[in-house]
Each structure stands twice: as C-alpha cells, then as structure tokens.
Write a structure and sequence with these properties.
Length: 222
C-alpha cells in the first residue's frame, strides 16, 4: 500500500491504522465502477488495467473524456463536494483499491503531507482533463495526428512500447470521429507498422513509439 500514488507519504503507523479498512477489488471486463452523477463514497486507486471515463450528454450521446491507468485515482470530486462527472467502465479486467472517503478525510485532518498529496493529485487530474481536450479535440489536427496523440496517452505505465487497446467505437468516441474514420486510420497505421500485434493481453498491443511520436507532432505526412 505504501507504494500507491496516494499513500506513499504515510508512515508505518498510519498505514497500519487504515490497512484493515481498505478493499482490494477485482472487476471483470465492462464493469461499471462508479456512475455519473452519484456522490463518491470512496476513492479508487487503479492497480492494474484501465478504466474509461464516459460522459453521457443530455441528448443521449456519449463521449469518452479520459482513461484511468495504473496509479491514477477516481473519486477526488468528494473533496470539493462534487458528484462523479463521468461513469467509470473497465477495459478488460481491472484490479483496484477502494478507500472509504471517511477514512481519507480522518487521516488528512491530521496529516499535512497527505492533504498536499490529495491536492496535487486533484490538480493533476484537472490538468490531464484539459490536455485531453486540447490535444484530441476536433480542429486540433487531422484524425491521423489526433489518433497518434491518443495512442500515446493510452500508453501503459512502466512499459516501453505497449498501449491499452480500445475498440474502434471507443476510439471514435474519444476523438469525436466516426467508426469508419477510426477504422481507416488504424488500418493505415497497421500497414505502416506503427501498430504491432496484440500482446499476450488482448487489451494491449505494441507500437513503434518513435514513429507514433513523429506522427503526433505532424512530422510524417498524412
């Protein structure tokens, strides 16, 4: 637990105090972890796998506005008395640690380092949301360039060349493009050997990172 993004600032006594109050959870593929509009009663730390953040619009459309990867947190809205802005759905199997909000609040009241870490993670989540929008929104580049930027953002932490593998419908929902356009761009990247075969995990595949970065920066013609 000390190795988690949130609890690395805690001492042994604090870790021992709250260890019995945490839940290690395993979610099957396509599980809903939390619902848009609900009040967070816990924070989730992703340990393995990925969770897509889906925002449902008033007209019934959906947009994927982010992805939580190992080390990321969900539920920080609770510290500003906000509701979940998105629904979290697992991509493949996911393991996560569930930490009740009451436990975090109690510990943060007496631990300045933890309060600072919570603030850092909250600001990082806001920055990531802004970067996701500015880099991937329509008008910020061609579908090919934005797909390359997206794949770089889907890179699995701790690996040199593996990214989380989403279906074309999800990729289209992330970029605001049609399924046909997403399929066409992916097919071209595979022909150019930018995208490699699936890894042993069907929800990940390998990429040529150098080529992908060149495309993302517009250095390779469409």
């Amino acid at each position: 637990m000390r190795g988690s993004a949130l609890f690395s600032v805690l001492g042994p006594e604090d870790v021992a105090q709250i260890g019995s109050k945490l839940d290690d959870l395993a979610f099957p593929a396509a599980s809903v972890v939390f619902h848009q509009g609900s009040l967070p009663d816990a924070i989730y730390t992703v340990r393995e796998g990925a969770i897509k953040l889906i925002r449902y619009l008033p007209n019934g459309d959906r947009r994927i506005v982010g992805v939580l990867k190992p080390g990321d947190l969900a539920g920080l809205e609770a510290f500003s008395d906000e509701r979940f802005a998105c629904t979290g759905v697992t991509l493949g199997e996911v393991t996560a640690c569930r930490i009740p909000i009451a436990v975090i609040r109690s510990l943060a009241d007496s631990n300045e380092a933890l309060r600072h870490r919570i603030f850092e993670k909250y600001q990082a989540a806001l920055s990531e949301a802004g970067a996701w929008l500015s880099e991937l929104a329509a008008g910020s580049g061609s579908a090919r360039v934005r797909m390359a930027r997206l794949l770089l953002r889907l890179r699995k932490p701790g690996t040199a060349d593996e990214v989380f593998r989403f279906g074309v419908e999800d990729l289209g929902a992330m970029l605001g493009i049609t399924v046909e356009t997403a399929s066409r761009v992916l097919a071209a990247l595979k022909r150019e050997h930018v995208l490699g075969p699936m890894s042993r995990n069907q929800y990940q595949f390998s990429v040529d990172l150098a080529l992908l970065e060149q495309i993302a920066h517009g250095d390779v013609p469409d």
